[in-house]
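Q: What would this chain look like folded?
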Amino acid sequence: MGQQIVEVLTPFLLHLLDQGLAKATVRRHRDNLWTLGGELIRCRYDDKALAHKDVRDALQHLIEGDGGPLMWPRITELEQGSLDATGRKLDRFWHESAAGETPGSGNVPPPERHLNCVGRPTRVPQSAPQSRPRRRVIGACDEPTGRRGGQLVSKAQEG
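A: My prediction, written as structure tokens:
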């Protein structure tokens, strides 16, 4: 069952990678898909009608176009909102794929893919990667002092 879930969700994960989203965003969607898969397995034990559906139909039944299944109180409201966003994005991906469109913006073919040493897909770079300047994010706890190597340092020492 788990392998079937992975097979159904892999095209969506590859689509997310093709969109050029931030690693944290892709990771969040991946984690939400893992949660959705776990909920599907749990629900199939409780709902006999759901148990007889194939994996994609069962997942579509769970997300129902408006996001993920309601899992409160097992997850927070913020996590539920994130799960719902991933569910809506997955549903939109499936509808665009069924309509024969290339999911996402325009009909641009996805970049060529290869598998890395552990069998996971990787993108083939189109050109040299462009580096972005790194910015130091200062939070409320960093105001008078900052942290360097786990030790507190003053602003004068940071310079």
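DSSP finds six helices and four strands in the chain.
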